[in-house]
Amino acid sequence: MKREFVILVLIDIVDSVKWIERLGDVKSTQQMKVYNRIFRGLLIKYQGVEIDKTDGALLIFERMRDALRYIDEYHRLVEHHLKLRSRVGVHCGEVIMHTNHDLFVSRGAKLIEVDGLQKSIAARIMSVASAGQTLLSGPAGEYASAVRGDQVLRDLGKFKLKGVYKLMNLWAISSSAKRLKRPKNTDKVKYVRAPKLTPEQQVQRFWRSTLYPYLGLLLLRELMMIMSMIELMGACPRLYLMEMSRAISVIVSFIHGLFYF
Q: N or C: which end of the chain has fewer CB within 10 A?
């Protein structure tokens, strides 16, 4: 046994049981052969290794750039050729790796096995991803930020993973904004806290919550002043516009004082 730092990628077909039931055993098996060619062929292209396989698979990569390129092309090919949606979870960390004896491999055991907490964390992350979505753990997201290419990487906030003591940031990565949404809570993964705002987001929130209403009041005050002048000239019935404009002026002056202070 030895410890190694790896990038864990878990891929899974969404609603695979319903899909098999709808197609039947024969047609679904034929389609699964295509699926296997896709995900295994891409492993050769991007230097990944298959560790385990069910209707999805556990894969490991040495480089995050290769993992992200693999995932992007994997999503596109599965959706184009099979009209299926898959979900993906990505995590990185130290795992325990060991090989099985040739005798056990000849009886169906896997040649390489991966164990440890990081494998369970990757499974938790994948389980909460929605159809077509790729979610990354906090460490994987920070790693991916430097090699993401033209894909958008979004911090989704802090989540509580069942069985894991510390809260963990989750990230979403995609070239489509629809696939960057925060996932729904499950019994194993729950949303806890929003991510920290970037400087750009802080400026935007300031404009939306403070300056825009302030500018709106300024415009309203000027409009009320004009209407009150019309009222004083007798061009319209008395609507107490002057009193209203004075009240708005007091509010504007108060807000302006807060800004000045």
A: C
